[in-house]
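Changelog note: in this version the structure field was regenerated for every chain. One regenerated record is shown below for reference.
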Amino acid sequence: MPQATVAVTFDVTEPHLQNCLDSLARQRGGGRDGARAPGSAAPVEVVLVPVLGAAGRAEEGGQEEGDQGDEAVESAREDARAVAAAFAESPPPGLTVTLLAGGPAPDRPAARARATAATSGTHLLFLEGSDALTSYSLDYLLHSAADTHSDLVAGNVYKFDELGASPSKAHRKYCNKHRVAEDPRDLPALVADGTLGNKLWRRGFWESLADHSLDPEDADLGLRRALLSARTADVLPAPVLLRRKREDASVPLDKAVLTRRITAMGELAAGLPGADRDLWDRLLLRGELHQILLRLDEADEEARAVAVDLLNGYLDHVPARLLHGLNVLDRLLYHLVRKRRVSDVLEVAVFAKSVEIKKAPVVRRGLGYYVRYPFFESEDPARAVPREVYRLNEEIRVRQKTEEIHWSRGRLHVSGRIGIRHLRARRRWQQHVVAFAVNTATHRRVRVPVRVRLAAEYRLPDVADAARHDYGGFTAVLDPNRLRTSGSWEPGDWKLELVVLNRGITRRRFVSGPVPGPPERPGYHQVAEDVWVRPHWNRDRQLVVSVEPTRVRVTGHRFDTRTRELELEGELVSAPAARDAELRLTRRPGTAELTYPVFVHDGRFIVRMHAEELLARSVTECGGVIRQEEWDVHLATPRERGVPLVLPDEVATAAYADEGIRRELAVQRTATGHLKLRAGHARPTVDRARWQGRDLVLEGEFLDRAELRLVARARGRDEEHSLAVERSGHRFTARFSPADVATLSGTLSLPAGTYQLWGRVSDPAAESGSTDVGVEFSDALIPDLPLETRTRERAYVLSYQGSGIPVLQVGSDLRPSERGAFAQRALREHHYPAQRREPVTEGILFDTYTGRQYSDSPQSVYAELRGRERWADYPMSWLVADGQVRLPDDLVPVRHRGREYYEALARSRYLVTNSRQPAWFHRRPDQVVVQTWHGSMLKRIGFDVENIRGKSRDYFDKLAWETAQWDYLVSPSPWATPILRRAFRFEGEILETGYPRNDVFFSPDRDAIAERTRRRLGLPEGKKVVLYAPTWRDDKYYTRGKHKLDLHLDLRRMHDKLGEDHVLLVRRHPRVVDSVPIVGEGFVHDVSLYPEIMELFLITDVLVTDYSSMMFDFANTGRPMLFFTYDLESYRDNLRGFYFDFEETAPGPLLTESDEVVDALLNIDEVAARSEASYRAFVEQFCPLDDGHAAARVVDRVFGRD
């Protein structure tokens, strides 16, 4: 058995070292030989090596430490070393720990060299002190190394921080399945991976690697080069490394850095043989060099020129055939680099990061297809690019999804959509499909009948009333009898291949991509006595049809509560070498193994396993994000590693648990009809479900007597909703109306999306007081799903995904004929112009944040109008996105992007909005548009923003068109008026009235509003209210318009220090889609959905914000403000920029650490007193018009006096 050496290199100021070392202490066995008993395996060798951090290197070089001071740096060093010394002095069982003597290493490569020289383990793992290992990592990696003797073993990676963990997208590509002794050159994503902590290296191989004398900052390049020297590598799918999220690790666009790094790339490439050199070049050209070019618009002119010169030098050694094999965007970029057209490279970089690139049309020229990227067929000779640069080759890919798969009359019917990108089959003759069943071992091919059919637009559900259809649908029918060999059934796996012919282009694709839900569980079918056909989806999501004779069958199971043993009974249908058989259990996805003897007599067998051995090996880490409780079960013999056990449908599944124990051992059936076991937390099992009116009613069983709640948690964003649960013994009933959810904005439908059901179980041992466990559907219920109900607005569907994960799917409030790009284009280009030709109708359309709220200045204008007799009964409507806004009865909701949305913009007499309008909106002469805007001028806006991220090249042209549609623009102050005029290049009338939204601060009803707001939020009396309301970050997002909650406050520490006499309200910016982590009972309140922030200001004692314009509003309260500006330099200099010196003008202190915020809140009176003069000056400069009458002034000017 190999022995592992773990080298932990830690920055001397590393604050998270203890977490890293704790993960080493948690390392446990559970592999082939079970748990690691004392003396049963060689101890793991751990060596700790301190590294001089950046601050320390600056000090060594004679540079100043800055404001932090020498004492703070020295204290941080002592803390990290003290943690390491304590761990080395008292090592956990199974570890030998050494803290290397001497001073810190100058850098991490030097630290790794010292660690290697000082240790003797057969295998090396290098871990950074900020990261951590999963509890099974070392056993998992070592067992693979022992089996294959590969030069390295790589495992999957999860990223984590204080808010949670998530899979690393960069590692998902090559860690998607178990790979054994593969050539790294066949795994380009592995070679491109510069992560070190997820890899276990064979010492002999590591020590044989050449020293390329790289700068320490370029060590990742050396690592990638090392991977090309490896003979074989193993890849494991389960996460082994928990990598702490770092700040942006992009290469600085600095002349010296670019020179050093690109030169190193070339030098490393020079010594590679032909195929390896091609792979090296291809990965860099598609990866880091590509990224440098896309960021050149952020660099200064000198760095741009240097980058282009260096890239040209690199490209001198890249063959033309390799460049030709790149995609169109890369070919275009490198063509421009070769021509030294720097300004054109910048234009393409902006284009590539904008929405434009997704809309670029494809055209046909002769027999080829080309994409219209910048300079395509340019008439300017100086900007011309050869047409062949734009030719689509591999980009013309086939895309396919499977929407239905079922058995009928003994045949397997597979239906879905297939087509070649950019080549829609508008007519029947344009696309033909041929299908084959292909044996994966013998490659025998069997023709399968397939029918091409009319289907809805590819990205949408296939419904009859969709806006557009084409001949991209298919249905293939597989007769299993065709898979026999010479009339007999032979075990084997088959894939279904589709061959698509479309206008002279042929593409092949194995059937894959099941849509979530029933297609993921195809079901199985008996074709002869003890012969079954079992379709399933492999790790690549491809359909595999397995012909499988039954060899081992389970006939029963029982649990002995006295011995706590699970007993399985069964029969050997076609017996393996029974006398030497053993039962092998493998914890998914292969991270542990257990074996048990099998007792055989007369073709029948019995096997017993102790529940505690399985339960002790359940894995729950990162708050349940990593959870391993399921075990595959096989019968193993000396000749065969694994024969699966069939669990017939007539044998019931069951969960076994002792009274008072929160865990259970469950006997379950896979989607292919095989036995699996689950050992871990007790889980709620739903066995009955129905819609009762608008209510979803779920009934089921839960063996744990702990308090249970069911939770519907949104996929793709941080949002959850609780279901009411009633208990009666082990039975439970949950009731939930997804169309009527109580929110701070009133009763609303759940937003569109998919919600997974979880059980939240009280758990005193958990930090949060509860543990979330997955909810399961019983086998008897799954055939009855999906269950659907509809309201007037949308559909709600109870279904399942994957192997049977319960989900609630909430549909859009758009009708099928309004969904999708084609439908929206038709409404935009046909319906809207037609409506503009109709007469204008009397009415006002209000809009706040593109339909996301009922609030802000438009709401104040609406209220002012309704209070005037002339406008009391005037028709008014409000834009609503996805039904997520609660409106007064006298306002008509207008669905955003619905048919009436286009009608309202085309025909409403008035439009009052605080947000941007679509580029296609064209104000009519008899329409009036009032832009109230929504921010005050700290951050640069409009034409004043130099670096517009993610926008199209014609962004400013569109902005100029949009502002030309405004009749009036509201200004909050005389100081803001010239900025608004310049930033929007607005030539119309600016209403210098103050913002109407601030009238509430001067309302005679403000105390009553405040009291109502406190009651509505359920805030306790006598506690100070702190409101944290940060703005959004342009560079932190999921998709366009959906930004992440970049929360840097330590909520746990705030609760510990402030929880006794404070409550913390947290409000997300409307662009942010994540919800707020709740810490401490009654301390943190997510008030993001509260409809009007001004009402929150009325109850707020202290505002904590950053660069949000709400500081200008809150200043009217005179109450203290704190500014948590942890990224001030980056935000000011790289993202948006400011209109004034924020550090000098801010009406409160600028704080950069979470602890500083806590300390300021604890001493808020002193802090506020120090800012009194700046606060007063701030109000005088920015708030002179706020007097409670701004809405009246706007109404008087736009709508006239009564």
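Spot check on this record: The chain is about 25% helix and 30% strand. Residues 30-40, 58-73 have pLDDT under 50 and may be disordered.
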